[in-house]
């Protein structure tokens, strides 16, 4: 993992390392996808890179291809969950609703999703 100052205390790093249990949906050498513990849709899965970076913008700056890997994994999650229609969301910063500062992509589906959101 990248040596970010807070990565040792990062919940998602601990899930990736297997130290904290999670309901895994997809796991590869580069990403881990697991069910959100506070879902806002019938299907709500988080896709995280194994490498710690604080948010999607930092990930895109450091490793642009990692964003593509997250989106590809989100499509795999959607297929696994039987979703034809789904939403992918990156929250960047606390004002946007990010509460765990490890890049993660929300995959939401299983119901009609209104626009605009919140």
Number of helices: 3
Mean pLDDT: 93
* CATH topology annotation: HIT family, subunit A
Fourth CATH level, the homologous superfamily: HIT-like
Radius of gyration: 14 Å
Helix and strand composition category: alpha+beta
Approximate strand percentage: 15-25%
The major beta sheet can be summarized as: 5 strands, antiparallel
Distance between the termini: 33 Å
CATH architecture: 2-Layer Sandwich
Active site: 104
GO molecular function: catalytic activity
Pfam families: HIT (PF01230)
Domain HIT: 11-118
Write a structural description.
This protein has a single domain (7-109), classed as 2-Layer Sandwich (HIT family, subunit A). It has three helices and five strands, in the order αβββααββ. The chain has helices at 11-16, 56-62, 64-80; strands at 24-27, 31-35, 43-49, 86-89, 105-109. Strands 1-2-3-5-4 form a five-stranded antiparallel sheet, with helices on one face. The N and C termini lie far apart (33 Å). Residues 1-5 have low confidence and may be disordered. A motif (Histidine triad motif) lies at residues 102-106. This is Histidine triad nucleotide-binding protein.
């Amino acid at each position: 993992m990248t040596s970010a100052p807070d990565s040792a205390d990062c919940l998602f790093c601990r899930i990736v390392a297997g130290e904290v249990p999670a309901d895994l949906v997809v796991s590869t050498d580069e990403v881990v996808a697991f069910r959100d513990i506070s879902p806002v849709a019938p299907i709500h899965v988080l896709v995280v890179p194994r490498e710690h970076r604080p948010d999607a913008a930092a990930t895109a700056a450091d490793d642009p291809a990692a964003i593509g890997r997250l989106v590809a994994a989100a499509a795999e999650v959607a297929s696994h969950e039987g979703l034809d229609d789904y939403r992918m969301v990156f929250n960047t910063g606390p004002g946007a609703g990010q509460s765990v500062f490890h890049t993660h992509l929300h995959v939401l589906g299983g119901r009609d999703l209104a626009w605009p959101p919140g």
